């Protein structure tokens, strides 16, 4: 600490006599300084003095006096002024009193001089009018005692406490510096962030020592020229341990309300470190924007603002403020303590991330509530647009989906989680390697390893992953926490399987050993029975269910539904799935139909229960099983084929007819889904609709090729000829029907598949029916031209046709 | 340019409807304008009118006619305020011989009795304004005690925001002389402080 504050003016007069050259230099610097102020430039007095080191000693006090002339007065000086009449004591705790440095909430701060050590100190003395107030005296000395216990480079150091015989006071280090906001004004945002980080860490240090500051504000944080902040004025600091001692009167509020947290504005509310985090947020806001987040004329109004109003986004005030810093600031300014950083340290760590160029973790709710207001209005409008047919169902669904994503609270971290960055990729790669390692322990025999160590290692890894994941999640680090929890959700059944395997639980092999899946896949695998697999998955399901409830993240709905699907498959395995697959695959596919139905019913039920985030993942499984089951049935179910041949002999039992039948089923299903109208159902309907043209046109094309082939082998058979001809004309017609059907529901794949098969059909026509004839090509040229012409003159032609049909009167 | 807290930035923000920016302008210019206004008032006037009354009116009419103000150079906002202040001073000097206008005729900033008035300064409670008044009186007392040329150079260079070049032109001196004069003036001003490093608050 440099004592460069001259005590009186005699030093100056000496200098004046010393030389006018030096005087001239100072005058010039002073004039330059004033000219820069006149240019509406912000000039930091300290920085300016540093640029003129040779005259800094004289210049600094002059600049201070100049700056003080037009400063807007601070309120807190009021009390000090009332005490001004009291004469200063000669000495306090053996320190010579040189003067008054300033006035705080409870008294004055005096400049003292320790003659023994030759250093200047600050002495805080309780104001005369408070000395008889026992509770204030207690608080005053508590502040000193709390501070004296700790030592931190960014917290003012207490040297000693006053004796009972003297007026209440304590001696502390003299901090020379400017208030945080003043000091930060000329700094870059990066430097401001660095400064804020130091302050946050110092506040965290206080919290670790069970001290709440409760009165954090820029004037209580002085910054020295080397940009080291010092926190002081613990007028309200209270030891967390000491909650029983009330030092504030009931209902009484202490401190500067501008930096209060919402809970601090309500009397009697228990404060915790997160209240200081809010104050840090307010200070950070002021550092970034130069103004306070909440303005009001009266205390009641200010308290209301702090409790209810959302602050103007810092970037609205200044576009240059980095978005990450805005995130951090708003996260600290959350109204609910549980939404804020859990500690000042967490805030400092997030600032660290910004400084390291990493993504910060803060995802303030301010954005979603800001958007929610606007989006709700827009959604209402959207419904109107849909009713007025300004937008199509598809556009409506797409917009709603995107808006839904914006509104959902957890989405910002999901978006972050989807962004591939080095830490992100490493995180998931690590999780994947972990799972593979565990899976190997379950899949392969390791005779050298005792089974206890195998079970223990997998078990411990799973438990640790779960514990770390839950802790990270609770600490608000959702993006990282979810990776751990996902890894755990895969490790859980593996751990169970390892346990079953090693201790031969449920190891009874199925009635037919051939039914066992793993043994059948490879002999190298351990003999894990289907029963073990079934129980491992079954016992894991409640875990997934709980994770879904706990995290409310839809990822676990996905895990839950996929694992349920796997459970069904394993159930079928236990019932002999593999045997059916070998002997009669048709039966295998037949048994998939109930699974598809089960998933459908579950999905619909979930959706009706408003659990749309869960049903979203069940529907695709239902659709998937339906497709696999129906296609499998058509392709390989013998009885089905025999029934077709028996009932409709003309089909000759050809599979293609069964696929056309499937297309009809899909068409019906899409119609049903469309009737059950919900956004998710419409997506399902679309999936079914999507399958129709491919199924129909591919089947017809195959039937046509088969018919042509048969006829070519037996050219005399007229019936065969007619059948081939029928298909030759049917395929292009159907293709055109699908092309035009694309208009209905805007199905682009109808158009593409139709166009494609039209070409195929025309090629087949040309090579068979019109072999060697130019008629078809000429006809196509004319038809194409006519269609294009018709399209350009669509309206007049339509009008003319209308007039023909219904002649005007 | 335009840092949002510069005069230009604040003026622009106020023009765009940010009333908070006006409060900041008020704070930024309050002391400078108060001192300038005080020395523009005659002694008789000082006896009748409070500086603060004049200031309130200056800021009120500035807030009303801000869209007529265009920022040309750094000093132009202060010059504009001073221009308004001169009108207000002349205006109230005319009224001086008649009865002093009654309080309700004067449009005041928002208060409990006048809830529709414009905001004076956010989060500024009456007590804070009172402290502000007190500090101003203290400053004026000190400035009054300065020799006239010392006071003038401080007034022009510091409070009215002229460049030293402009001050030199106005006082008919060289810039170097003005600089030396300023140096002595500030030193003298400082000597009047009651022997304490007053700007270190702790």
What would you note in describing this structure?
The complex is a heterodimer of chains A (809) and B (202). In chain A, 63% of the residues lie in helices and 6% in strands. In chain A, strand 5 and strand 6 (169-173) form a beta hairpin. By secondary structure, chain A is mostly helical. Mean pLDDT of chain A is 82; it is low at 1-19, 73-85 and 236-255. In chain A, helix 8 (189-208) packs antiparallel against helix 9, helix 9 runs antiparallel to helix 12 and helix 28 packs antiparallel against helix 29 (679-713). Chain A is elongated and about 130 Å long. Chain B has 2 domains: 7-122, Rna Polymerase Sigma Factor, Chain: A; 145-202, Orthogonal Bundle (Arc Repressor Mutant, subunit A). Chain B is globular and about 45 Å long. Chain B starts with 6 loop residues before the first helix and ends in an 11-residue tail after the last helix. Chain B has helices at residues 7-15, 19-40, 43-48, 51-64, 76-96, 126-144, 148-159, 164-171, 175-191. In chain B, helix 2 (19-40) packs across helix 5, helix 7 (148-159) crosses helix 9 (175-191) and helix 8 (164-171) crosses helix 9. Chain B is mainly alpha-helical and 202 residues long. The interface between A and B is large, with 70 and 66 residues.
Describe the structure concisely.
The complex is a heterodimer of chains A (809) and B (202). Helices cover 63% and strands 6% of the residues of chain A. Chain A is mostly helical and 809 residues long.
């Amino acid at each position: 600490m440099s004592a460069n504050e001259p005590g009186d003016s005699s030093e100056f007069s000496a200098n004046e006599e010393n030389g006018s050259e030096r005087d001239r230099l100072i005058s010039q610097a002073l004039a330059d300084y004033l000219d820069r102020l006149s240019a509406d430039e912000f000039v930091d007095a300290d920085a300016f003095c540093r640029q003129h080191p040779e005259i800094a000693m004289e210049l600094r006090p002059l600049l201070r006096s100049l700056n003080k002339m037009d400063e807007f007065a601070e309120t807190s000086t009021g009390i000090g002024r009332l005490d001004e009449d009291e004469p200063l004591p000669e000495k306090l705790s053996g320190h010579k009193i040189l003067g008054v440095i300033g006035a705080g909430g409870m008294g004055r701060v005096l400049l003292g001089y320790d003659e023994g050590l030759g250093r200047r100190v600050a002495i805080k003395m309780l104001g005369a009018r408070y000395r008889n107030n026992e509770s204030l005296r207690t608080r005053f000395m508590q502040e000193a005692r709390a501070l004296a216990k700790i030592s931190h480079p960014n917290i003012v150091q207490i040297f000693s406490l006053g004796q009972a015989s003297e007026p209440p006071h304590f001696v502390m280090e003299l901090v020379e510096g400017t208030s945080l906001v003043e000091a930060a004004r000329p700094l870059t945002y990066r430097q401001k962030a660095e400064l804020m980080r130091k302050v946050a860490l110092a506040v965290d240090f206080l919290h670790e020592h069970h001290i709440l500051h409760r009165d954090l504000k820029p004037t209580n944080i002085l910054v020295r020229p080397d940009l080291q902040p010092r926190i002081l004025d613990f007028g309200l600091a209270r030891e967390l341990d000491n909650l029983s001692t009330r030092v504030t009167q009931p209902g009484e509020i202490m401190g500067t309300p501008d930096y209060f947290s919402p809970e601090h504005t309500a009397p009697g509310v228990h404060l915790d470190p997160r209240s200081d985090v809010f104050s840090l947020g307010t200070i950070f806001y002021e550092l970034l924007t130069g103004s306070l987040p909440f303005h009001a004329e009266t205390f009641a109004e200010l308290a209301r603002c702090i409790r209810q109003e959302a602050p103007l986004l810092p970037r609205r005030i200044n576009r240059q403020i980095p978005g990450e810093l805005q995130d951090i600031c708003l996260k600290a300014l959350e109204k609910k303590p549980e939404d804020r950083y859990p500690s000042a340290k967490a805030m400092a760590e997030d600032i660290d991330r910004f400084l390291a160029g990493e993504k910060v973790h803060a995802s303030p709710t301010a954005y979603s509530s800001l958007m929610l207001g606007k989006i709700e209005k827009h959604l209402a409008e959207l419904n109107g647009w849909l009713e007025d047919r300004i937008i199509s169902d598809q556009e409506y669904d797409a917009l709603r989906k995107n808006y839904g994503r914006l509104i959902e609270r957890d989405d910002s971290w999901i978006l972050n989680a989807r962004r591939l960055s080095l830490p992100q990729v490493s995180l998931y790669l690590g999780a994947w390697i972990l799972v593979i390692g565990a899976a190997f322990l379950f899949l392969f025999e390791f005779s050298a390893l005792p089974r206890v160590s195998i079970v223990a290692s997998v078990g411990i890894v799973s438990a640790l992953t779960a514990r770390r994941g839950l802790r990270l999640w609770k600490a608000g680090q959702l993006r990282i926490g979810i990776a751990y929890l996902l890894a755990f959700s895969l490790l859980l059944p593996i751990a169970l399987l390892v346990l079953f395997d090693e201790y031969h639980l449920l190891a009874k092999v199925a009635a037919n050993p051939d039914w066992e899946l793993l043994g059948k896949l490879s002999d190298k695998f351990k003999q894990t029975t289907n029963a073990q697999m079934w129980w491992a998955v079954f016992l894991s399901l409640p875990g997934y269910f709980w994770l879904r409830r706990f995290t409310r993240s839809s990822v676990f709905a996905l895990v839950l539904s996929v694992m349920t699907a796997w459970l069904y498959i394993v159930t079928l395995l236990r019932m002999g799935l593999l045997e059916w697959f070998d002997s009669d695959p048709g039966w295998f596919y037949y048994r998939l139909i109930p699974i598809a139905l089960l998933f459908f019913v579950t999905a619909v039920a979930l959706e009706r229960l408003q659990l749309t985030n869960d049903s979203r993942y069940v529907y695709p499984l239902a659709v998937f099983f339906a497709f696999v089951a129906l296609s499998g049935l058509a392709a390989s179910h013998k009885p089905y084929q025999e029934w077709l041949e028996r009932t409709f002999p003309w089909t000759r039992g050809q599979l293609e007819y069964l696929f056309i039948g499937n297309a009809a089923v899909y068409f019906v299903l899409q119609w049903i889904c469309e009737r059950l109208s919900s956004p998710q159902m419409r997506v399902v309907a679309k999936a079914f609709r999507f399958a129709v043209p491919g199924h129909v046109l591919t089947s017809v094309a195959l039937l046509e090729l088969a018919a042509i082939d048969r006829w070519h082998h037996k050219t005399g058979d007229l019936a065969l000829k007619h059948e081939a001809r029928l298909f030759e004309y049917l395929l292009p017609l159907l293709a055109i029907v699908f092309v035009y059907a694309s208009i209905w529901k805007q199905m682009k794949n109808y158009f593409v598949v139709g166009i494609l098969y039209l070409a195929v059909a025309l090629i087949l026509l040309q090579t068979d029916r019109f072999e060697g004839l130019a008629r078809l090509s000429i006809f196509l040229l004319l038809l194409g031209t006519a269609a294009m012409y018709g399209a350009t003159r669509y309206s007049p032609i339509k009008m003319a046709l209308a007039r023909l049909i219904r002649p005007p009167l | 340019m335009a840092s949002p807290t510069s005069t230009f930035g604040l003026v622009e923000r106020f023009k765009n409807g940010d009333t908070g920016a006006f409060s900041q302008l008020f704070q930024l210019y309050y002391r400078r304008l108060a001192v300038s206004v005080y020395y523009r008032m005659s002694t008789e006037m000082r006896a009748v009118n409070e500086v603060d009354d004049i200031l309130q009116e200056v800021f009120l009419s500035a807030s009303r006619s801000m869209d007529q103000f265009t920022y040309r150079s750094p000093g132009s906002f202060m010059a504009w305020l001073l221009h308004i202040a001169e009108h207000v001073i002349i205006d109230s000097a005319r009224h001086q011989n008649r009865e002093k206008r009654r309080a309700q005729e004067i449009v005041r900033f928002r208060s409990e009795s006048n809830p529709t008035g414009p905001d004076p300064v956010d989060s500024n409670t009456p007590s804070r304004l009172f402290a502000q008044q007190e500090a101003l009186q203290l400053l004026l007392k000190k400035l009054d005690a300065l020799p006239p040329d010392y006071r003038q150079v401080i007034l022009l260079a510091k409070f009215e925001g002229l460049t030293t070049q402009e001050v030199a032109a106005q006082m008919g001196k060289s810039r170097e002389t003005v600089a030396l004069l300023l140096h002595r003036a500030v030193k003298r001003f400082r000597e009047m402080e009651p022997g304490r490093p007053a700007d270190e608050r702790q």
